[in-house]
Amino acid sequence: MVRRMCVLAGLVLLMSACGTEDQASTGDGPTRTATETVTVTPSPSTTTAPDGGTESAPPEAADTKCVAMELEGEIANADAGAGNRYANLVVTNKSQRECTLYGYGGLEFVDADGNANPTDLVRTPNPGPSLVTLAPGESAAKKLHWGVVPTGDEPATGRCQPPSAGIRVIPPDDTQAFVVSHDFGSVCGAGHVEGSAYFTP
């Protein structure tokens, strides 16, 4: 618990020097978006709780890391079962150079107007960090898992949380974000979502 709180405090301090907002919405199914790049500051309603692994990229990747303005994304392979939702966040290098991803990065649920929704991101090493090199046009993925069953003091009927129409995606070792649209609906457990590190699909 102490280790988790320390990691949480460090991430909040790292991200608190930046600004916020922006997003687009869509209906059901995967949609390629990622045209806007924004600077993200966690809102009061957002808790980012990383867990597992380290975000320190190998030294050789320091000058080649992919940044938000070079990426676009979509939600793919969505699946559902027993109150759980599963999907892959797929990011594609839209730049003209080769770049790298190492680690988990961050994300924040947003509503159809681009306002932040509660987000409780937990890192799960399935898989953990490995260096992913993306040539122009190549993609990497990140596994996502969230629930739609109310927990704690969330209402048993109606919406457990405000519906989310997309996510702001923050690449590893970056403070800028790009927006991916998807109809997540209400993410219960105060926006609890588990996310793997990026990997080559």
From TrEMBL:
Domain named DUF4232: residues: 66-188
Q: Which domain of life is it from?
A: Bacteria
Compositional bias, Low complexity, is annotated for: 30-50
Annotated signal sequence range:
1-24
What are the UniProt keywords, alphabetically? Signal
Q: Where is this region: Disordered?
A: 21-62
Q: Kindly provide the name given to this protein in its UniProt entry.
A: DUF4232 domain-containing protein
